[in-house]
Write a structure and sequence with these properties.
By secondary structure, the protein is an alpha/beta fold. It is about 40% helix and about 20% strand. Strands 11, 12, 13, 14, 15, 16, 17, 18 and 19 form a 9-stranded antiparallel beta sheet that branches. β3 and β4 form a beta hairpin. The longest helix is centred in the C-terminal third of the chain and has 40 residues.
Length: about 500
């Protein structure tokens, strides 16, 4: 059983800052690009206050510089002046009292542990949102400088490498990916979890996936139990209605942040397809089909064999490296196909193409398509298919009856000689098309496998990767890798032409 304690750290100074940030955020019009950018800055300021374990006046988190940037920008928005003034007052008071309550709680908890107790394997999660750390004390060999050994969990490798007796999470879990949340609470890696929250933060467990009801699973599966308790560090009064509203701030702010990060629709409409939006650390993102798998490199995988794997889009997590599909592999595919006799087989299977080109000198693709439909073809986009068959971008009809109608039409127009046995003629050409498709498919699998092998070998020899990395392989293929920052948990609806295109995020990059 996993034990989870939600520990509320009382701090009126922090509470005032959180409420002021929320008021400023709510006063802005996020349809306006300038105000949307200011909304992002307000959230970043709030996130640093929530998640940092450094003193609030630390130069590493630059709270004062962030505050001044927000105040300067807000001067141009009359409706935000009052909220900004409140934030400035609350933040300056916080900066004048820089001791960090969450850090002091952690140090006190570690210092008061009985010396006679058996040593615990303890961890401190530091990547709280967008795959980033918002200010963590110095470490030595990955261990926090503390009365007891505490490993800072700054990647999924740190989490996967051990079974932890206890993990401390210094803030709300709303911004963690589903995959990371699952590993923390549902996969047996952690026995006890302490979640530290200020008044105005909200912690809730997400439901894990369950198998469908079936007699196959009856009596064979057991569900993990999670016991949650709430603890206050002082005699805090009951939450007021304002505090209860503030408790939901991170849920609404998270959803609104995605709205200013990409322009996907949140409801279906004609011409739109369902997708998930993936934001990368370099400020670019892409829409991915909801049922797609992505080839991912995980340099923090505990097992070398699992560093390169195909991952469903909904299991992507912070720190994953997306292996973008290379575009310069055509010559490798041609070389591999040629070894299997692709050229001659294609010439034999598609010997009707010159006849189709001659027919197009006197008939349009529309006329040919209409005639094929009248003869029993059932293609959805026959006009475009005729063009594709002619220029060779598609080898030939993908349906046997469609091929039969095409060959009959070419013979009837005198563009092909009449065969002795038409059924056998169709069967031979259909078999030829299937063979060249099979050759090309096997060649593609081999090329892809070789690219992945070379990429794994190359990446295994590299040191620290940047947030976006171009890798040149021995074969001359260039591969782009982009590191995942976050995954929108909501479905987005976009035109199919927008899928799998890595483009700059709406409104510019997050500030590092």
């Amino acid at each position: 059983m996993v034990k989870v304690r939600e520990i509320t750290i009382d701090s009126k100074a922090v509470g005032s800052v959180l409420q002021s940030c929320r008021a400023l955020f709510d006063s802005l019009d996020r349809d306006d690009p300038f105000q949307a950018d200011l909304s992002r800055k307000a959230w970043e300021f709030r996130a640093h206050v929530l998640f940092t374990l450094l003193p609030f006046d630390s130069h590493e988190i630059e709270l004062l510089a962030r505050l001044e940037e927000i105040a300067d920008a807000a001067k141009r928005i009359p409706g935000a002046v009052n909220a900004t003034g409140s934030l400035e007052q609350a933040a300056r008071f916080l900066l004048s009292h820089p001791d960090n309550p969450k850090y002091h709680w952690i140090m006190a908890a570690l210092d008061t542990a009985p010396e006679s107790a058996p040593p615990e394997r303890m961890g401190l999660l530091s990547m709280m949102a967008m795959g980033k750390t918002f200010g963590c004390p110095k470490t030595t060999d990955g261990l926090l400088d503390a009365p007891r050994a505490v490993q800072v969990i700054e990647s999924r490798r740190s989490l996967a490498s051990e079974i932890f007796d206890r993990v401390i999470i210094p803030g709300t879990c709303h911004y963690l990916s589903s995959a990371l949340h699952l590993e923390l609470f549902h996969e047996g890696r952690v026995r006890e979890v302490d979640v530290l929250v200020y008044p105005g933060e909200w912690f809730s467990l997400r439901n894990r996936l369950v198998p469908p009801g079936s007699a196959i699973f009856l009596g064979r599966l057991t569900s993990s139990r999670i016991a949650c308790t709430a603890v206050a560090t002082s005699d805090m009064p009951d939450a007021t209605e304002v505090e209860r509203d503030e408790a939901d701030a991170d849920t609404s702010m998270r959803d609104e942040l995605w709205q200013i990060t990409h322009d996907g629709e949140k409801s279906p409409a004609p011409g739109l397809v369902s997708s998930r939006y993936v934001l990368c650390r370099n400020g670019h993102g892409l829409f991915v089909p909801i049922d797609a798998h992505f080839m991912v490199w995980r340099d923090d995988a505990a097992d070398e064999d699992s560093q390169m794997e195909s991952v469903p889009v909904d299991r992507l997590a912070e720190g994953d490296w997306l292996v973008m599909q290379p575009t310069d592999t055509g010559y490798l595919l041609d070389l591999e196909s040629a070894e299997a006799g692709f050229g001659q087989r294609m010439e034999d299977a598609c010997d009707w193409r010159p006849a189709l080109e001659r027919l197009l000198l006197t008939s349009s693709p529309v006329e040919i398509a209409e005639e094929m439909l009248a003869e029993g073809a059932h293609g959805v986009s026959l006009v475009q298919s005729v063009r594709n068959w002619t220029d060779g971008s598609v080898y030939g009809p993908g349906d046997r009856n469609e091929l039969r109608v095409l060959l009959a039409l070419l013979i009837r127009h005198g563009k092909l000689p009449v065969p002795e046995n038409f059924d056998q003629y169709v069967a031979e050409h259909w078999k030829g098309l299937q063979e060249i498709r099979g050759i090309r498919h096997r060649a593609g699998l081999h090329v892809r496998s070789e690219i992945h092998r070379q990429l794994s070998s190359t990446l295994g020899q590299l040191g620290q990767l940047g947030v976006c990395q171009d890798v040149m392989l021995d074969s001359g293929v260039r591969i782009q890798l982009s590191q995942v920052a976050a995954l929108d948990e909501q479905i987005s609806w976009v035109p199919a032409s927008r899928l799998m295109h890595l483009q700059p995020m709406k409104g510019g990059r997050w500030r590092e």
